[in-house]
Fold this protein.
Amino acid sequence: MTENIIQAQGRTIIIDGGDPLPNCPTSWDEAHKWVDIANEEKSEYGEPLWKFDCGFKLDYDGPLLSVSSRFYPPKTHFGPKWDGHVAIYLLDEEIETKEFECTTLDVLKEEVDVYIKSFIADLDRFLMDRRKDD
């Protein structure tokens, strides 16, 4: 057994995975150059992006869905209620939006939370149905 491979409780732990093989970046400059090219056509807003982590581990992370909202407080210029909207995006494309107008901040919070939870439940049902079809 080599010093960087440890067998413990039925698991193998590898410390420092050895020397890089061909096509593996050997410097951060090389890694950043590859990432820039790999992410060239991607939107930073909603698409997963390629990124190298420590030890040149490669990640492909990012949101597929995102929520964006803005609410204006009750003021003379905005009106007597909390007023605004929630937009849901899939890969940087707005797929749903809902307007809100609420008398208090607590009511606004409750209505937005209910709306988002309902959207999540609908999405869960859609995904469950899709898994059944596979």
In short: Residues 24-62 form one domain. The two ends are 44 Å apart (CA to CA).
